[in-house]
Design goal:
Length: 380
């Protein structure tokens, strides 16, 4: 079938665009001499893992389920970080992960002996270098952040126990979100000023995610220089963990217009929902790109796009079009591969979107559909 024929709502992953991203990431790996992992928290569509595995070094996880998925479906290097691990899951995590990264010295101490000789142990550090502007919700370096060990607490742990770093082979920091290489360069300076003497004692340094490497204006050359300099200075293996960059601009959410309501604002009622199918629209917030549309008032006909849920604030945004939009028309939201499928919910009993793949020849194939049982089984 063609993309205009898929059942709605439906996520469609464009494999040609996915491959374009992966080719660039592979180039960075080769020229920088680093290892790039897919951050599954952004994109966990494991149907594409065999393809992704042809380009990247492996996967990284935020807990047991993602760790199992990475091991089972890609089977390459598999890393995990969590602010806190559950006692009953730890042995399985260690059995499927090549790197286990701890958020604190207390977690490290608790699980060290279960990791030694079985996996490479890492510790997350906090460079205390904020680059997020006013968006503290996305800033792991915001004052009071629970993420990573600050230098003060790092030194305190070593003063209390000189063997506190026993078994630790790597350090990890993750401070970026949809950012360019200049912010990485700035963060690296802060990390080196605080933790440089410890980095030199390690086998590897993980620079986390948030690197928007496949964005059109991203400074790839600066990223490569940063990685090379760290490798040359400290003699460590370097890891990057992008999530968005892997599938950036490589997906669509196809939706159908169910009705048009005009109570002072002309509103399109869609079978897709911000609250259920693209919650970052409400959480960040942001206005998702929409094919063949413009800003309000830019084109002849302006509408507010909303959903069929009961949430009054389930509003996607205001858009304009060259023609009037009618029930039965289809709209195509763009950049919907990342942080969409992984954040779905069934609020109001709204069904989960179908998942499809668009091949390079234009053929579109539905690979997964969801129904009532997928809603029901989560509730009892």
């Amino acid at each position: 079938m063609r993309i205009q024929d898929v059942p709605t709502p439906c996520y469609v992953v464009d494999e040609a665009k996915l491959i374009r991203n992966l080719e660039l990431l592979k180039k960075v790996q080769e020229e920088a001499g680093c290892r790039i992992l897919l951050a599954q928290k952004a994109f966990s569509m494991f149907y594409e893992y065999p393809l992704i595995g042809q380009y990247l070094a492996g996967t990284t996880a935020s807990g047991l389920y993602e760790a199992r998925l990475g091991r089972e479906e890609m089977g390459k290097e598999n890393h995990v970080f969590s602010p806190g691990y559950r006692e009953q899951e730890m042995d399985e995590i260690v059995s499927v992960c090549d790197h286990v990264i701890f958020n604190s010295f207390s977690q490290l101490k608790k699980y060290r002996n279960r990791c030694l000789g079985r996996t490479s142990i890492g510790l997350r550090i906090n460079p205390e270098c904020s680059t997020q502007g006013d968006h503290a919700i996305y800033d792991p370096c915001a004052p009071g952040s629970r993420l990573g060990v600050t230098l003060e607490n790092f030194k305190k742990a070593l003063q209390e126990d000189p063997d506190a770093l026993k078994g630790v082979e790597g350090l990890h920091f993750h401070t970026l979100c949809e950012q360019n290489a200049d912010d990485l360069e700035r963060t690296l300076r802060a990390a080196e000023e605080r933790f440089g003497s410890y980095i030199g004692q390690m086998k590897w340094l993980n620079m986390g995610g948030g690197h928007h490497i496949t964005r059109e204006d991203y400074d790839v050359d600066l990223l490569i220089r940063c990685v090379r300099r760290v490798k040359d200075t400290y003699g460590v293996e370097v890891y990057l963990e992008p999530g968005e960059a892997v599938a950036l601009n490589a997906g669509y959410l196809v939706t159908e217009v169910l009705d048009v309501v005009d109570n002072g604002i002309r509103t399109l009622i869609l079978d897709a929902s911000a609250a259920c199918h693209m919650p970052d629209v409400l959480e960040m917030p942001y206005r998702p790109p929409l094919k063949d549309s413009g800003k309000p008032g830019e084109k002849a006909y302006t509408y507010r796009l909303s959903s069929c849920t009961c949430l009054a604030g389930d509003v996607i945004g205001d858009y304009s079009f060259d023609r009037e939009i009618e029930p039965g028309d289809r709209l195509y939201f763009e950049d919907m591969a990342i942080y969409s499928m992984v954040k779905n919910n069934t609020f109001n009993g709204i069904g989960l979107p179908h998942i499809a793949v668009l091949s390079a020849d234009g053929d579109c194939r539905v690979i997964r559909s969801f129904g009532y049982e997928d809603f029901k089984c989560r509730l009892s």
